[in-house]
Prior knowledge:
Number of helices: 27
Distance between the termini: 76 Å
Bound molecules: phosphoenolpyruvate, magnesium ion
Amino acid sequence: MPDRTETESRKLLGRLRAALAEGGAGQARLDRIVGIIATSMQTEVCSIYLFRDKDTLELCATEGLQPEAVHQTRLRLGEGLVGRVARTGQVMNSANAPSERGFRYMPETGEERYSSFCGIPIQRLGESMGVLVVQSKAARVFTADEVYALEVVAMVLAEMTELGAFVGDGAALSARHTSAVMIRGTVGQEGAVEGNVYLHEPRVVVTNPISDDPEAELERLRKAVDTLRISVDEMLNGNMAGEQAQVLEAYRMFANSRSWMRRMEADVESGLSAEAAVEKEQSLARSRLSKATDPYLRDRLHDLDDISNRLLRILTGQGTDTGAEMPDNPILVARNIGPGELLEYGKKLKGVVLEEGSVGSHAAIVARAWAIPLVVHAKSILTEALNGDTILVDGEQGIVHLRPEDSVKSAFRDKIAMQARAMERYASIRDLPAEGKCGTHISLQMNAGLIADLPSLEPSGAEGVGLFRTELQFLVRNKMPRRSELSALYSRVMDSAKGRRVAFRTLDIGSDKVLSYMAPNDEPNPALGWRAIRVGLDKPGVLRMQLQALIRAAAGRPLTVMFPFIAEPREFRAARAEWDKALERERILGHPLPERYEVGAMLETPSLAFAPESFFAEADFISVGGNDLKQFFFAADRENERVRRRYDTLDVSFLGLLEQILAKCDAAGTPLSFCGEDAGRPVEALAFAALGFRTLSMRPASIGPVKHLFRRVDLTEVRAVIDAARADGHQSVRRPLMDWLATQKG
Ligand code: PEP
Ligand code: MG
């Protein structure tokens, strides 16, 4: 950036700051600003268009066009050159505007006299807020220096718009973040809740986009970057406090990036404050992010976004602390969140809304275990929501209402009341068995993973815990738990179960469950990688500790243990050998051994379904981990929203696989259960029971609805419907089953 432009741009920002300091209503400010820009840039026209609503741009101030057009001229997003700049987020610089594709003549503005046009997007962190336009009669292209100066000004305008500087008397704009917004996302977990927004990472508000002392500002920027570098290094050198080392490596790369630093320094030298400079570069990265398709590039742009947030927090003195106090009935709003971070918040949360996220992730499983509504893919929730905003989360339909109108609120409250009545109905059958009209009894058990889940055992009517995910205890900590801690915890779980069976699944880490205190594993495809029993057998220290802790916790009581992700019998045998050794060691040490025990395998890969018959006789029981089994059967990532719903669990091919497992377990006399999320969906649960499953394990909140349905039907009839659908060549039995259910009474 040549010196001349730096000073010009600095002078322009200096004038803008003085104009803004004069105060006055929003419209007066805008009018002053366009005048200053036109004079400084020596152009005949300067106009500011801002979004009136998300699809409409409005001419809000102009120097040079007809003053009557202000607040009258409106364009749809994408319409005319201005609409195009707003839609693409790209600068448009033309010597002959009327010849450009999409040019739209607006007679009320009197702009036909102007040939050159330069439109600059006004955007903040990827959100388009409007367009700054300069025009002149002479046919000329604006120079790169001029465009840069305008970009700097547009950055300031974006910040001022965000701060509400242009709202008020005379301005047709309403304040941002005040109107009602409805966002349509994807259902992650059903349920409806009213609460208040609690941002996982609160937005940083820059109150001083322009600096009067660039030297001092450069100093602030450099100091903040130094602090950032030190903090990233510290995190990498051991104490990673929940961060993944891989991400931190990328952070380090950016924190030390010369080009990033140079760009921000140039912005500061042009008159922006350090915060505004960081945001300017961050905004550019966000706008590139929205267009990037290459996953590697997207990841890097994401990293740059994260590190910019960190730098902003350092500059604004917010550190890395999230700062804001948790409101009553908090609804967590985040771009994305891992299971460990979610667990750290604990059960205080009443709901979760994610801008990205996915339904099959373990964070979603945590939300489901807590039975709190979850909506994922809630596009632009982060730009819209402010801490403390009223929010309604409709987990049935995947809809979020932010700052709702009273009528929406009252309809929503009716819905909550209806759900409460359904809950009462389920509570009334809590002590009745899950028995079809045919008299077949199905054991409904619950999935758990935290001590806090156990109080649900009684009210849900679960007969036991069919899956206790032990890794959640590892994920909530930031260091490896000790054996004595684990043993005390498992003992409490067994105490709370009051003699009911609890199937403890040994540590299932890897894939999306990453322990911050274990060396990260850079794998291209972690779901197919070094995870679960593979880690347990390769590094048996943790597995042994866990088995010992379980035996000690049982202190003579019956014990059930299962190993996750067994792909072939050899793995089960090796894991079982560890179990036998653990028993022997405990015996020698004089600890009481379980009165009886069962050691089972989780069937989560199709390969195990095809294992020799002898394997099915070896395992004391088998539990189908349907979440993983389904993703591998259909080769459809359970966390990838694009593909995860593509294949139906009630697809006849998948049911065929389940039948084969049922037949093998039956022949060997080995008990079989199903503990994936599908077991908690009433129609799926019904189909599984009709095929022959006699134990289903699900989140506690599903037990009522599943039992309610079971008690209404005859499983032999359900089986007949399934068989007829298969004979008719249906790909999925869902529709025939639903149609048949609609004919049933009750
Ligand atoms: C499964 O895969 O179905 C399962 C129960 O295990 P998780 O969801 O914890 O991987
Ligand atoms: Mg699994």
